[in-house]
Amino acid sequence: MSLDAYIAGLPKAELHLHIEGSLEPELMFELARRNGVAIPFDSVEAVRAAYDFSNLQDFLDIYYAGANVLLTRRDFEDLAFAYFQRAAADNVRHAEIFFDPQTHTDRGVPLGVVVEGLIAGMDRARAELGVSSSLILSFLRHLTEQEAFATLEAATPYLHHFVGVGLDSSEVGHPPSKFERVFAAARELGLKLCAHAGEEGPPAYIHEALDLLHIDRMDHGNRSMEDESLIQRLVSEQMTLTVCPLSNLKLCVVNDLKDHPVPEMLRRGLHVTLNSDDPAYFGGYVNENYRQLAQAVGLTREEVTRIARNSFEGSFLADEDKSARIAELDAYAGR
User: Fold this and answer.
1) pLDDT digits (tens, 9 = 90+) for 228-260
2) CA atoms within 13 A on the CB side of 202
3) Catalytic positions
4) Which of 157, 144, 146, 84 lies closest to 116 in space, CA to CA?
5) Which of 26, 47, 292, 297 has most Cβ atoms within 10 angstroms of its Cβ?
């Protein structure tokens, strides 16, 4: 069996997926027509051409423009289920998906509409595709601490739907320390904590995420490789890193996949996972991230199996569910 074929059938979890970033141009156009929303593109091809960006902010500008077509409960259900269909085709057995409530509530879309639509899509995925999932509420770090607190308060009636909170959007100039008190409040509510750090921001942001936010999982973390003490700490704490190779390439975090730090991360003992981040914008869902990275840096079958195991171990699944998924992975690898 080729490595590509092995990756295709490999049971895996996806831990770094922004559901708004799975909005494919075809669905964007369909929702724009359905809701009577004007978008600044005249064709699917024009949208894809606009995806030629070179940094995080250029991407975010088009990302937020695309989100304008999402208005109704049905829209969010369709968005979620479309992602899960692609995830199931990649043999993703469990996904923990981010959503950005402020992107929608700031446009006048009630939080309940967003949550209920996403949960409906997640329920369909479990029933029809056999893919389990959890929802992570992410704060937009370019907005204020006060706005993050307001979002957390507004989300209180829906807390039973969330497994955790996250921190995303423009990293540089918005350090994790800005949200230390909000994360403490989320922890008091019993939520798991994760944050984007060390994608474009410096290693100091990773230290802040660990020391001030007390995260349970780190999103990206590439720039930890610039700080030897940080590497040793992440290894000793077995902190899961949700790395996104094609995102890193598209946003010029790396200039070539051959230069990606994952092989060195694995060699040093970091608990690395592979994920698709915003796959509609970055050119591939989770298996494409595995395949292209494996080809570029020469990952072995044992290494991709280890990465998939890390994805289940680093998930927020209950222990018994983790064990069941890992047993499924071991059985596949054994065959």
Assistant:
1) 999 999 999 999 999 999 999 998 899 999 999
2) 3
3) 199
4) 157
5) 47
